[in-house]
Amino acid sequence: MRHYAVFGNPIAHSKSPLLHNAVFVRYEKELGFRGNYHPILLENPQDLKSRFLELGLFGANITTPFKEVAFHLSDKVEGLAQEVQAVNTWVLREGQVVGYNTDIEGFLAPLKGLHVSRALILGAGGSARAVVCALKSRGVAVSVCNRSAKKLAYFQAQNIPSFLSQDCPLDAYDLIINTTTAGLKDNNLPCEESLLKALFKQAKHAYDLIYHNTPFLSLARECHLKTFDGKAMLVAQAVLSFAQFVPHLNSPLVLATMQEVLH
């Protein structure tokens, strides 16, 4: 039996165990491969790696607010995670904790075929870094808006227009993305309602990485925007993570299984 997990705070809402365990059940019946996947609430970010090793995990996902910490605690980082300095997937290989970021490709999943030239990202954490990287790979001009200045330094160093919420310019954006936890377990918005309404008035689409309806998405629909929640991204990044956990399994069947469970 191989053990896997997802670390976060909060974590009770996570559907990742449901998705991954459904695949493990399927493959145990078909191939005899045995695995399980559990949610783990972590209080101290610096305990992340020690908990991973103590539990004897072969792999894990890392969610809010530990993606940047996971980057720094990794023994080795591969792929675009090096660029965004945020990790959402860990795999134990030859005694080393190797970090990846599957959020980047996962974020783009529901946007296929959508024309986006300008985007505004609300929030400045690890998820925002992945979103910036994903959009830049498609040639999208991106700006970042956050309530506090501390985490904006990373984006400013990348020459990405970055603003405090109160200074956010009311420009026209094709897509506005919420990468914050506002609306995850509360009725909060990622910034002032008046600012959002003004931004939505000129926007076309709104995307929330949270995978249920949120006040952000409700307000966007009131303003007649087309909206996307995080379900498609959740499945896409989970499939990519699973491919790192168990590389020899059939990815199309993994995708089909996870989609069946979520819908």
From TrEMBL:
Keywords, sorted A to Z: Amino-acid biosynthesis, Aromatic amino acid biosynthesis, NADP, Oxidoreductase
Pathway: Metabolic intermediate biosynthesis; chorismate biosynthesis; chorismate from D-erythrose 4-phosphate and phosphoenolpyruvate: step 4/7
Residues binding NADP(+): 123-127, 209, 230
Catalytic activity: shikimate + NADP(+) = 3-dehydroshikimate + NADPH + H(+)
InterPro entries membership: Aminoacid_DH-like_N_sf (IPR046346), NAD(P)-bd_dom_sf (IPR036291), Shikimate_DH (IPR011342), Shikimate_DH-bd_N (IPR013708), Shikimate_DH_fam (IPR022893)
Active site positions, chain numbering: 67 (proton acceptor)
Gene3D superfamilies: Leucine Dehydrogenase, chain A, domain 1, NAD(P)-binding Rossmann-like Domain
Protein function: Involved in the biosynthesis of the chorismate, which leads to the biosynthesis of aromatic amino acids. Catalyzes the reversible NADPH linked reduction of 3-dehydroshikimate (DHSA) to yield shikimate (SA).
Family: Belongs to the shikimate dehydrogenase family.
Subunit and interaction comment: Homodimer.
Protein name from the UniProt record: Shikimate dehydrogenase (NADP(+))
Species whose genome carries this gene: Helicobacter gastrocanis
Annotated gene: aroE
